[in-house]
Amino acid sequence: MIQSTQTFISIALLLFIQIAILSMASASSGTTSTTSAPKTAESASAKSSSKDEIPDQTFDRYINNERYMLMQYECLMGNKPCDHVGRKLKAAVPLVVRGLGCPKCSQREEDQMKRIVSHVQRSYPDKWQKLIKKYGN
């Protein structure tokens, strides 16, 4: 039971954090246009959102890959070395558990994050508190 609880928490954190990482990466890389037509804020926002959102199918793929999830969880907990994704995740975890959210995320991404966090808080409140204690300093 403890291992499945840890696996679930690692899945929730990974999904939540990857949304934040994708949004941060797109914000820092910026986009340039090769056309002379001006872009409206709405069209630029829509393009960015659709490109950066994580589809539900991708969520499912992460959730079903327990080995990958456990590897990232062990990295986040400091028990095993991190790959490039794990290093980015480890850097983003403090922001996530502090509730700083993802200001550059689309509405869909925000909704996905809220749903994941809400489920972990409701289903595993003791584990959520441990994560807050570890990363919320």
Automatic annotation (TrEMBL):
**InterPro entries, alphabetized:** A10/PebIII, OS_D_A10/PebIII_sf
Q: Where is the composition biased (Low complexity)?
A: 29-48
In the UniProt record, the signal sequence range is 1-27
The record's annotation in SUPFAM superfamilies points to: Chemosensory protein Csp2
- Keywords of the record: Signal
Pfam families found in the cross-reference section: OS-D
Give the superkingdom in one word.
Eukaryota
Q: Which Gene3D superfamilies does the entry mention?
A: Insect odorant-binding protein A10/Ejaculatory bulb-specific protein 3
Q: Does the keyword Glycoprotein apply?
A: no
Give the start-end ranges of region Disordered: 29-56
- In Swiss-Prot or TrEMBL terms, this protein is called Chemosensory protein 7
Instruction: State the organism of origin.
Output: Nilaparvata lugens (Brown planthopper)
> Which lineage is the organism of this entry classified under, starting from the top rank?
Eukaryota, Metazoa, Ecdysozoa, Arthropoda, Hexapoda
